[in-house]
Write a structure and sequence with these properties.
- It comes from Actinocrispum wychmicini.
- It is built from nine helices and eight strands.
- By secondary structure, the protein is an alpha/beta fold.
- The chain has a single domain, classed as Luciferase-like domain (TIM Barrel), CATH 3.20.20.30.
């Protein structure tokens, strides 16, 4: 089992502090999100995710850095592919790129993009990921798709890694197919579901992925909402065992709240024992 830490910092001091903690305590990945604002409370400070990752990439040395998830609501695939190449170089080949269709009305509203119907959302995700995948592999031929056409693309310099890992956020059947066709990894999260509902749905989604032509090698659980990893050491251990049993090999947890820090410190003090 691999472990990642997700931080949505309000200040650079906070971002730098958690990056140091994550790297020194043995986490495998350091992640942040990609929202224009906090979807529930506009007073909560939110920074641009890819900019934070660029700073982490330049100030860490070991840990992989990545975005969970780059939001197609307000990003263009050609621009995101170029940003991914830049982040790969800044990090020395330690960058992972998560992509998802975005569901928060606040992201649509702030970026001036109308809410998409589910069918259009899935179609956009498929074309977006296909474009990014081809560009990162060096295919810069013109594209005339319905949502993201472009011409005269260039992807130089190329990536440091043989392939920048693509992590696709997917729960619905069409999005799962996108993950199977293009993803090096798949990420899912509970949202508003209860833990039992999410666990049952995850079993079904993993089964669906394995039925498709090429299942993603990495299966990532983003733990939040009904999943509370920092309640106790036993709670963390149960989380790891429960989701490893059904096929997850990576768990990304949010940085702890102040009242969870004591448990967090105990868990990371013996993180390797949970692998």
């Amino acid at each position: 089992m691999r472990f990642g830490l997700k931080v949505n910092p309000g200040t650079w001091d906070e971002a730098a502090r958690w990056a140091k903690i994550a790297e020194e305590t043995g986490f495998d990945g350091l992640w942040t999100g990609d929202n224009m604002r906090n979807p529930r409370d506009p007073a909560v400070p939110v920074h641009d995710g890819l900019t934070i990752i660029a700073a982490w990439a330049a100030t860490t040395t070991r840990i992989r850095v990545g975005v969970l998830i780059a939001n197609v609501v307000f990003r263009r695939p050609t621009v995101l592919a170029k940003q991914a190449l830049t982040l790969d170089h800044v990090s020395g080949g330690r960058f992972d790129l998560g992509i998802g269709s975005g569901v928060w009305p606040t992201d649509h509203g702030m970026s001036g993009v109308p809410m998409w119907e589910p069918a259009e959302r899935a179609a956009r995700l498929g074309e977006f990921v296909d474009v990014v995948d081809r560009l990162l592999q060096g295919d810069v031929s013109d594209h005339s798709g319905p949502y993201y056409p472009y011409q005269h693309a260039s992807m130089t310099p190329g990536p440091i890694q043989d392939r920048i890992p693509l992590i696709i956020a997917a729960n619905a059947p069409r999005a799962l197919r996108v993950a199977a066709e293009h993803g090096d990894g798949w990420v899912t999260f509970p949202g508003a579901a209860s833990e039992e509902e999410f666990h049952a749905a995850s079993v079904a989604r993993i089964r669906r992925l394995t039925e498709l032509r090429q299942a993603p090698q990495r299966r990532i659980l983003l733990a939040y909402g009904s999943i509370t990893p920092w309640a106790s050491e036993d709670s963390f251990a149960r989380l790891v065992e429960r989701y490893a049993t059904i096929g997850f090999d990576e768990i990304v947890c949010y940085a702890p709240k102040p009242d969870e820090r004591a448990v967090f410190d105990k868990v990371v003090g013996r993180l390797d024992s949970f692998r």
